[in-house]
Amino acid sequence: QICLSLVKLLFYLAHSPLGSIVLLDFQPRQFVMVDGNLKVTDMDDASTEELSCKEDNDCTLDFPTKSFPLKCSVTGKCEGINERKNLFNAYRYFFTYLLPHSAPPALRPLLSDILNATGDLRYGINETMKAFEEVLHLYKSGLYLQKRPLLLKDYISLKGFRTVEGEDYKCWPSYSHLGCLLSIHSAEEAAAICNSQSRCQSFIVTQQRTWTGRPLASFQSSWTDLIPDTNAVVYIKRSASSGERL
């Protein structure tokens, strides 16, 4: 969410009515999340000036660990230097730390491609935006889910119930520090996640939604102490419930 919001911001800066805007003091502390959107807190160090040049050799974009040769345009400006400076700073301050984590395994290669392409500046902001939107579409639609055996049949579902809240086993990347709370596309995906976790015996799907509209599921090591909740469905492994009375 943070990286996508940043890309949308950089897309706007690259195509602003004032021209391509570069953030000269590009640091994480210059940004803040407001209602799920990343915003710049200080525009004092923003500039629309692009480096003047006479030849391509005048257009080297230098960073502490990398340098990139750019083209000198017919108007005597280093072509796309503001856009690409913003994009590489986004890569080194945000993408490097955030993109490799939290995504479903099937989407990680696509995010790795974005990471590598922006790190080498093979992508401009238009290509980066398109790549992010494609990943978001796959994520929201569930098209990233590979064909796999149907596992939900191994669970008993009880509508209108959930387990008593409390600390349980933890997982990564959980939305709650008290247990294992993950976003899912469907109960079938939740069953696959539960089967992959040795301690999981049940999971609860509620009407809570993430910023992409995906429901949240809480994965539990037990299924006792059920309480009524009209907005929830609890799924219990048949193997865990065998011999027990529901």
Automatic annotation (TrEMBL):
Pfam families linked to this entry: PIP49_C (PF12260)
GO molecular function terms noted in the UniProt entry: non-membrane spanning protein tyrosine kinase activity
Alphabetized UniProt keyword annotations: Kinase, Signal, Transferase
Protein biosynthesis listed as a keyword: no
Domain FAM69 protein-kinase: 2-116
Listed GO CC annotations: extracellular region
Domain of life according to the entry: Eukaryota
GO biological process: one example: skeletal system development
Signal peptide annotation: 1-19
PANTHER family: PROTEIN KINASE DOMAIN-CONTAINING PROTEIN
Protein name: PKDCC kinase
